[in-house]
Arylesterase
Amino acid sequence: MFKKFLYIIVVIGLAVSCSVRAADTNVSLLVLGDSLSAGYGIAEADTWVAEIDRTWSLHHPNLRIINASISGETTQGGLARLESLIDRHQPDIVFIELGGNDGLRGFNLDTMESNLREMVTILQSRNIQVALSEVEIPPNLGRRYTRMFRDVFHTVADDKGIPLIPFFMREVALNAEYMQADGIHPNLAAQPVIADIMEPQLRALLEAL
């Protein structure tokens, strides 16, 4: 009887510890992006990723965000760097915000899709959760290319069974007050706005672990 009682206590204890994992265990999310996340034209400490890091440090100290974004990065570059980033940071989740530079340069979309799929496959094989950002580009290369480009992200997310996060630039790109003179990159004033958009979505991913 005592052994049965002890077994029940152990099982309950394990269930409770699993249910509160995100509340009492440090978990991390790595942002693998391009200039939109790296903070082209502004200081690294002022990026939307850094804004989220400060918020989490104050209000969610068990959560950590790591910015591994590089201006000019492509899906091929992200794929080439991925393994070393995993080994260095050991993230629980990777948020991939790549593809914009592929599209702006008119790269082959099959290659871009293959790179995204390979990144997701690598992460899933190492039991790391993945979330993919939608990415949109101006229609400079024609409506057909632009539509096919946008569809890649939905196809990869659906096929791989991963979350697809709405493109955060959609909320700021049409507001000149939030854009740099090139019309592509968000400025300093846009960073807190993007952080407000992304913080609850990224936090939800970590708290669901």
Observations:
- Residues 35 and 71 are 4 Å apart (CA to CA).
